[in-house]
Amino acid sequence: GDSVTQMEGPVTLSEEAFLTINCTYTATGYPSLFWYVQYPGEGLQLLLKATKADDKGSNKGFEATYRKETTSFHLEKGSVQVSDSAVYFCALSEPEAGTALIFGKGTTLSVSS
Amino acid sequence: GAVVSQHPSRVICKSGTSVKIECRSLDFQATTMFWYRQFPKQSLMLMATSNEGSKATYEQGVEKDKFLINHASLTLSTLTVTSAHPEDSSFYICSARDRERLGYTFGSGTRLTVV
User: Fold this and answer.
1) pLDDT at A20
2) CA distance to partner chain B, nearest, from residue A41 (Å)
3) Span A66-86, average pLDDT
4) Short-list A36, A17, A25, CA closest to A73
């Protein structure tokens, strides 16, 4: 079945460092891809998404490009802030409406000043 | 944007009692609701999928008699944890799929502690 694999954490960075969190997927069809962020004790917030190959999702300085050839959707940010400390989940949805998101295991990011 | 309101945010109950968690889509119609469970420092585990007006579909290993899901309207779904035990303590999150915009919106989660 479909699956998402993302890099193990935790990722520890200093403020203003460059961030990459790797995400690869396995899918039989052409899924939509998502990055969600979860702050402590809260639910998930959509960070960005891409619905087809070569699409780039971006939000709050974060970017990710849907790469069909490498089945990847890596999350990047040029300069992280302390407030970016959270858990990041890569996810995919199958094209058929009504199916649940499939999540990676999550990557904890800790940014220090 | 789309908002899902989940209540309560925290609940502590005694072992053997039942707890109901509500999720409401505030500004859109959610034909499908998903219920997840999240253990500390782990990913979200899908428990069940519910479609408005029909019975929920449970994932393998999830006890349907223990986790009762009702999706009686396009804006409300409930999860009832029956005869709760300490091992049911967890973070429960709902997600609603917007029929028109085809997006997923998550509730803020419910921290259940069974003592």
Assistant:
1) 97
2) 8
3) 97
4) A25
Q: Does A106 touch chain B (CB under 8 A)?
A: yes
> What pLDDT does A48 receive?
96
| C-beta atoms of B42 and A98 within 8 A | no
Contact A71, A24 (CB under 8 A): yes
Task: Report CB contact under 8 Å: A98, B51.
Answer: yes
Question: Quick check: bond before B8 cis, omega within 30?
Answer: yes
The residues that bridge with B73 in the sheet, in sequence order, are B76
A21-68: per-residue pLDDT in tens?
A: 999 999 988 899 999 999 988 889 999 999 999 999 999 999 999 999
Hey, which residues does B83 pair with through a beta bridge?
Answer: none
- In angstroms, rounded to a whole number, what is the distance separating the alpha carbons of residues A76 and A86? 14
Name the residue type at position A103.
F
CA distance B81 to B86: 12
DSSP code per residue over A26-95: E-SS--EEEEEEE-TTS-EEEEEEE-STT-EEEETTEEEE-BTTTTB--EEESS--GGG-EEEEEEEE-S
Q: Among B24, B4, B34, B37, which Cα is nearest to B112's? A: B37
